[in-house]
Amino acid sequence: MMLEVGGLDAFYGEQQALFGVAFGVDEGGVRTLLGANGAGKTTVLRALCGMVRTGGDIRFDGKPIAGRATEDIVRLGIAHVPEGRGTFTRVTVEENLQLGAMTRRDRKGIAADIERVYDHFPRLRERRAQQAGTLSGGEQQMLAVGRALMLRPRLMLLDEPSFGLAPLIVEELFAILGRVNRETRVAMLIVEQNAALALELAEHAYLLETGRVVMDAPAAVIGADESIRRSYLGY
């Protein structure tokens, strides 16, 4: 496993939000964290990025990263696409992509990667000089993913990429994510309320309930279990 998590606890002040969570992500793999609102899915991603106080073990390439500063974790090749997109609304699309490469110094490589992002997201190419805050919600989500790709990450953490988007845009976005994974072999850990789409994209799934992993199984197994879908996933 490229990412190995064991016995992960997480805290907001004195309140504990995760309890002994364990999971992994393999090189080039796609895995998803599922569960109801408040189950702890977003907290898992924040814990991986050093954004909340944690206990337990987090290892990337076999090396412990728990307790490291967020910027140091980013430099390891872990990109976080937070819920709500997090684009820089007052600068252009292209400037957002350039900001995604802030930790890099290879100008030619950065320019080539911007073009690669535009290949994945042709709408962004059309709007490259447009202020990001004027984009549609779907275009802003595409920009957030593109900006994360500018890091040349080995692992992308995506928090609710479908949030607030029309169904057709969601399907388009997930198709692009699948293509990016196949072409670049960047691993993905996806937190997603649209469980059906997440299970189609992912190979393996973890089901969270009140800060604990209650199921760990191949995505096809969870997706085929009608009782799990009704009880936990709402479809």
Detail the topology: elements first, then pairings.
Elements: E1 3-12, E2 15-25, E3 30-34, H1 41-48, E4 53-60, E5 63-64, H2 70-75, E6 78-81, H3 93-100, H4 107-120, H5 122-126, H6 137-149, E7 155-159, H7 167-184, E8 187-191, H8 195-201, E9 204-209, E10 212-218, H9 219-224, H10 226-233
Parallel strand pairs: 3-8, 3-9, 6-7, 7-8
Antiparallel strand pairs: 1-2, 1-4, 4-5, 9-10
Report on the architecture of this protein:
The protein has 10 helices and 10 strands. The longest helix is centred in the C-terminal third of the chain and has 18 residues, at 167-184. The relative contact order is 0.19. It starts with a strand and ends with a helix. Helix content is 40%, strand content 27%. The strands form 2 sheets. The protein has a 6-stranded mixed sheet with strand order 6-7-8-3-9-10, with helices on both faces. The chain has a 4-stranded antiparallel sheet with strand order 2-1-4-5, covered by helices on one side. The chain is globular, with a radius of gyration of 17 Å. The protein has 235 residues and is an alpha/beta fold.
